[in-house]
Specification:
This protein has about 220 residues and is mainly α. It is about 70% helix and about 0% strand.
Length: about 220
Amino acid sequence: MPQIKNSQLAYDFRNSKELETADELVRRLFTLEFQPRKKATQVYIRSVVANVNRHDLDKGSIEARIARWTGAIRALQEQAEKFPRNLRLKVNLKELIDKRKKHLKYLRRWDYKKFEWLLESLNIVYKPPPNEFRWVVRRESLVKLTKKYCDQVTDDKLKEYRMLLAQEHPAFLEEKARTLEFLRDEQRECGMEVTITQEEIDAAKAQLLKIQQEASLKSNETN
C-alpha cells in the first residue's frame, strides 16, 4: 500500500460545502492527518477501484470487486508486517486472497483480454493452479525419499570412483607407454609387422606429462 497524502480530505467530507469556506485550521481537522487509519485505507481502495471501474457508480462488476479486494489485501499486508502475531488479521487476509484468486480464475477462463488488462492495471502477479492435482500420500513420499537417497548414494560412489581413477591415471599412462614400447620392440625382433607407431607412444607420454604438470600446479596453489 503506497503512502497516502495526509493533506487530503477524508472521503466523507470531500463534497462538503461548509468546508470550502471554513477556516484553514478547521479544514485541517477533517483531513487524513487527524482521521483513523481506516479512512486512509478507504481513500486508497476507492482510488484503486476508480482506475478499473466501468463508470462512477460501478461497484458490483468483477473488475471493481477485484480492485476493491486488492486494495484491502495490500492494506492488510502492511498491518500483518507490523503485527505478525495477529492471527485474526492473517485469517482475514487469507480469505480475501482466496476470494480474489477464485474470481481471477473465473475471469481468466471467460475473458482473457480483460484478465490481462486487469492484472496490468492493478499490478497483480497471478499464478494459475496446476493442471493435475495429487494428494500427498505417505507411501509415495517414502518412495520419493528412498529414490532421492539412493541417487545420492550412487552419486557419492561414482564421485569416489572417479577420484580413484584420477589418482591411478598417471601410473596407468606410464605403464601404457612402457608396454607399447615393449610390444613394438618385440614385433621388430620377431620380424613381424610393426602395428604400434611412435605417435601412439608419444601421445601417451604427452598425456602423462600434462597430468603431472596439472598436479604440480594444484599442489603449489594449495601450499
